[in-house]
């Protein structure tokens, strides 16, 4: 799970690549990349909280980042779970484990790619219109 924390680098690298090569759609590409990894990356960030407990007092800043990961996980994990329950991939009111976790996270990726990609597209369009009017 801690390797999930490294997934935050995917949208960062996507942004830098898109700004260099496709500057008109940089935010849309970054939004799609962020949406694809945000649920798993936030769970990996939450895992840092538990690693901080092993370090002791020096792990306090790491624990604070882990708490932020918990908030992000609670926000980004819910839509995929409810969609998986509605479709019948996951039984309701039970702990998700095994292949069910893959189903939930796959649905989360699809949902957040659409949401963050649309936000990035709107931001690209706004910036383009603003540059044209100036």
Brief sketch in words of this structure:
This protein has about 130 residues and is mainly α. The chain has helices at about 10-20, 25-55, 60-85, 100-134.
Alpha-carbon Rg, integer: 17 Å
Globular, elongated, flat, extended or rod-shaped: what is the shape? flat
SSE pattern: HHHH
N- to C-terminal distance: 47 Å
What count of helical segments does DSSP give?
Answer: 4
The oligomeric status of these chains comes to single chain
How many strand segments? 0
Proportion of beta-strand residues: under 5%
List segments where confidence is low: pLDDT < 50 over at least 5 consecutive residues: none
Structural class: mainly alpha
Instruction: Sketch the major β-sheet.
Output: none
- Overall pLDDT score: 92
Q: What is the percent of helical residues? A: over 70%
Characterization of the model:
The chain is mainly α and 134 residues long. 79% of the residues lie in helices and 0% in strands. It has helices at 9-21, 26-55, 60-87, 99-133. Helix 2 (26-55) crosses helix 4.
Key terms for this structure?
134 residues; 0% strand; 4 helices; single chain; mainly alpha; 79% helix; flat
């Amino acid at each position: 799970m801690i390797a999930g924390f490294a997934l935050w680098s995917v949208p960062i690298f996507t942004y830098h690549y898109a700004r260099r090569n496709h500057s008109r759609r940089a935010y849309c590409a970054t939004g799609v990349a962020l949406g694809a990894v945000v649920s798993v990356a936030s769970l990996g960030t939450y895992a840092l909280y538990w690693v901080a407990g092993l370090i002791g007092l020096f792990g306090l800043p790491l624990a604070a980042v882990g708490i932020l990961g918990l908030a992000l996980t609670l926000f980004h994990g819910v839509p995929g779970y409810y969609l998986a329950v509605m479709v019948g991939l996951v039984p309701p009111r039970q702990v998700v484990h095994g292949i069910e976790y893959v189903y939930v996270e796959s649905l989360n990726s699809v949902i957040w790619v659409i949401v963050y990609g649309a936000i990035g597209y709107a931001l690209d369009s706004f910036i383009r219109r603003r540059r044209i009017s100036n």
